[in-house]
């Protein structure tokens, strides 16, 4: 997708548009020089895929279109509602931005870690970790709860971090085993452990743990609602096909 052009070779370059004034002199104006307000107006009629392609053009566009500001979130939200109206984002932007949600649900086609192509997106999205990953990278990037506890990671820390169960682990060639355990993103655990240990005093640590636990519970609730909604849509689709 990253190789897709923003415009065709036989179309005018949108980044360098010629304007005619009253003196019949040609003036050149670049989209890169436009203000954020004018750029937002241009983005109003772009699909999520077009917004993503535009964000790859230059640093300014990327900073603007991947911002988590309310302004930019509204641009992506409007695009989703207009072109992908079937996608309902149940997450607050503090938990999962519009860009992340659209990427995981619609635009993503490769592992975020190694870049390998992923054909069945729904089988590789791990919502608890907000990632699109191949099985091999997921295995390398996660740690089992019991292993973390053996390494003396605080139980109170793990209890307030997102975890995923039933991660498929490769056992043999073309053979997979589903392990009924909790898994955590190793980098996230280490990052949060550093934050936690840097806090001073029991009260400060207790408040941090409480806030993290509330965030995780809210995130899990949104995931459960989304999964339930998708499950209902799946069964309704089956009923519709078989009884109409």
Give me some keywords for this one:
two-stranded antiparallel ribbon, 244 residues, alpha+beta
How many helical elements?
A: 10
Order of helices and strands: EEHHHHHEEHEHHEEEEHH
Question: Which overall shape is indicated by the principal axes computed on the Cα atoms?
Answer: globular
Q: How much strand content do the residues show? A: 5-15%
Specify Rg, calculated over alpha carbons.
23 Å
Contiguous runs where pLDDT drops below 50 for at least 5 residues: 1-28, 169-179
The biggest beta sheet reads: 3 strands, antiparallel
Q: Largest beta sheet: what is the strand line-up?
A: 5-9-6
Structural class: alpha+beta
| Helix percent band | 40-55%
Q: Separation of termini?
A: 38 Å
Summed over residues and divided by their number, the pLDDT gives a mean of 80
Q: How many E-type strands? A: 9
Domain F-box: 28-79
Organism: Diversispora epigaea
Protein name: F-box domain-containing protein
Can you offer a commentary on this structure?
This protein is α+β, with helices and mostly antiparallel strands. It has a domain at 1-107. It has helices spanning 36-43, 48-55, 59-65, 70-83, 98-107, 135-141, 145-150, 155-158, 186-198, 202-243; strands spanning 16-20, 26-30, 125-126, 131-132, 142-144, 164-165, 168-172, 175-178, 182-185. It has a three-stranded antiparallel sheet with strand order 5-9-6. The chain has a two-stranded antiparallel ribbon with strand order 1-2. The protein has a two-stranded antiparallel sheet with strand order 3-4. Helix 2 packs across helix 3.
